[in-house]
Amino acid sequence: MRRAAKYTVPDSELSKQHGVKNAAGPVIDKPVLGIESSCDETGVAILRWVPDAPGEGLLAHVLYSQIKLHANYGGVVPELASRDHVRKLLPLVREALAQAGLKASDLGGVAYTAGPGLVGALLVGAAAGRALAWGLGVPALAVHHMEGHLLAPLLEADPPKPPFVALLVSGGHSLLVEVKKIGQYRILGDTLDDAAGEAFDKTAKLMGLPYPGGPALAKLAEQGTHGAFRFSRPMTDRPGLDFSFSGLKTQVLLAWQHSDQGEQTRTDIARGFEEAIVDTLLIKCRRALTATGTDKLVIAGGVGANRRLRAELAAAGEKDGFRTYFPRLAFCTDNGAMIALAGAIRLAHGQHQGESVQVRPRWNLEELPPAA
Ligand code: KG4
Ligand code: ZN
């Protein structure tokens, strides 16, 4: 695995000079502020850690999506994303505090996404989060964005307890993860090229759909005719749990180029494409559950909002005897609540960062320490 790049602002002596110290020890009963800014959504939430029912501890969550900003360019422009996080982050923090009926001084800790993601965008949230924590004299926690996604289903009623298998499907990742404990992750399968969400977005774009293409393509697919187009289920004809979705995109491109490019055709191709992705994910999930001897499957990440995927996995679970856990749609895509939760769990177990601001654009989930 390639070593992840680290962007670091060195530890300062300021806290010593000013006599401000991070609170030592676990953050148990105090609310934690969560900040998400890894890509094109600014998310802020406040959560108090309630071990058996984490959702009950969610006191506020607010989100600002940059979709309109990037739509003209057909995709996320990193520099514009960073600048917009700068504009929106602190107003959102104030809004979240107001929603929770709290003052900043009521916070017991601050959690922020430190990676993986766009370096400039990450630095905005990390610098603001670290500075806020320092100013308040409370501990800070750098959260792995995919751990945030993985834990999002815990915000729902009857949360899953490890061990379980997690399917994490977002714009940047397609991972099957064995979760023995919170923080103890083994990657069972990864994508060799495009992530599932990336495949949705690129396929939508090549058929002329506007950014963000994934949800638009999924909407179109709901009207498509089953069987009008059939694409392959990549890498399901051999053992293993890795994914590859870029060939599927090429198959769609060829089908689209050789078609009449009419509305109905686009809708039918969308359906065929979505069915291929959903089937592939389902086949690999079944394999992962068998390989690990687990009967709990957690699904999270932006593609986890896909209706067909949710329906097919839930139906397979009923048939095969495994249980599925999904976050609500708003917690599948990027949000601050999942970051507050991942941070609150680790802060509750006494973990926290040093004073430096560090972000990791690439960061392997397996490198994380166990949460407890
Ligand atoms: O988790 P997320 O919000 O951001 C990342 O961490 O990447 O995931 C965004 C991805 C995008 O690729 C988007 O097209 C995809 O999730 N997505 C969907 C749906 N909603 C979002 N893909 C398929 N069907 C959907 N309903
Ligand atoms: Zn994400």
Q: What features would you describe in this structure?
A:
The chain is of the alpha/beta class. The chain folds into 2 domains: 12-155 and 332-367, Nucleotidyltransferase, domain 5 (2-Layer Sandwich); 164-326, Nucleotidyltransferase, domain 5 (2-Layer Sandwich), CATH 3.30.420. Helices cover 40% and strands 18% of the residues. It has helices spanning 14-18, 67-71, 78-100, 119-136, 145-151, 196-206, 213-221, 246-257, 263-292, 307-320, 336-348, and strands spanning 7-9, 32-36, 41-47, 58-65, 109-115, 140-144, 164-169, 174-181, 184-189, 296-300, 323-325, 357-359. The chain has a 5-stranded mixed beta sheet, sandwiched between helices. Helix 6 (196-206) crosses helix 7 and helix 7 packs across helix 9. The radius of gyration is 21 Å and the shape is globular. The two termini are 26 Å apart. The model is unreliable at 9-23 (pLDDT under 50). Bound molecules: 5'-O-[(R)-(carboxyoxy)(hydroxy)phosphoryl]adenosine and zinc ion (ZN). Zinc ion binds at residues 145, 149, 170, 301-302, 334. 5'-O-[(R)-(carboxyoxy)(hydroxy)phosphoryl]adenosine binds at residues 39, 170-172, 197-198, 200-201, 212, 214-215, 218, 301-303, 305-306, 333-334.
Give a concise summary:
This protein has eleven helices and twelve strands. It has 372 residues and is α/β, with parallel strands linked by helices. Zinc ion (ZN) binds at residues 145, 149, 170, 301-302, 334.
